[in-house]
Amino acid sequence: MNVKDLRPRARTILKWNELNVGDTLMVNFNEENPGKRGFSYDAEITTLKTISRTKKELRVKIFLGGSEGTLNDCRVIFVDEIFKVEKPGAHPISFADGKFLRKNDPECDLCGGDPDKKCHTCSCHKYGEKQEPNMQLLCDECNMAYHIYCLNPPLDEVPEEEYWYFPCCKTDSSEVVKAGEKLKMSKKKAKMPSSSTES
Q1: What superkingdom heads the lineage (predicted)?
Q2: Domain-embedded: residue 189
Q3: Of 23, 10, 41, 24, nearest in space to 105 by CA
Q4: Domain boundary pick from 34, 69, 84
Q5: Contacts of 34 (CB under 8 A, 6+ apart)
Q6: pTM of the entire predicted model
């Protein structure tokens, strides 16, 4: 690919008074959870309203890219992080451009991916410690991680089995489906992620 055809990284934040209906720009949007931080998408402004000095409403048509099409009437939460779409061939980024940080969805909604903060969601579910990630097991049922030495009883080494389940998630023998039987669903299992698949 020729360098003149490459679009440089977005670096110019647009102020509210620089926006107009019909403009194409780059916004942060979360497709799965519109109330939270997501990823950067090209978008076209469809609605622009100033409700009060501090409250603004921006609705856009999101361009998903390629054959994926568009998402219509999407409300942009982060109206202070609207980026200009750079034209191909623009000068490369240098220190003269200043800070041009673009934020993406954090690794964890609770701790924001902070390595020094304890978190029971993205780290060891029992104690929240983040050290020794290579000693953590991920439960194939609840998707929570556990250090092998935090388990009861603790394990000496990471098991080689393809699937591993935390003891409270392990299927009890009364729920095992025998050949020719239909899948049974207990109240506990109905709430687990595996209930949405038939495997």
Answers
A1: Eukaryota
A2: no
A3: 41
A4: 84
A5: 74, 75, 77
A6: 0.51
Answer for the pair 137, 158: CB distance below 8 angstroms, yes or no: yes
Residues 50 and 118 in one domain: no
Residue 116 CA from chain centroid, whole number? 20
**Could you write out the three-class secondary structure of 7-60?**
CCCCCCECCHHHCCCCCEEEEEECCCCCCCCCEEEEEEEEEEEECCCCCEEEEE
* Residue whose C-alpha is closest to residue 182's, from 198, 158, 197: 198
Task: Give the number of domains in the chain.
Answer: 2
**118-152, pLDDT tens digit by residue?**
888 888 888 888 888 888 888 888 888 888 888 88
What tokens does 39 get? Answer: 């990823």
Lookup: tokens for 44? 């076209």
Task: Tell me, yes or no, whether 133 lies in a domain.
Answer: yes
Joined together, the tokens standing for residue 117 give 């903060």
Verify that 79 and 7 share a domain, yes or no: yes
What Å distances lie between residue 40 and 109, 131, 143, CA to CA? 17, 31, 27
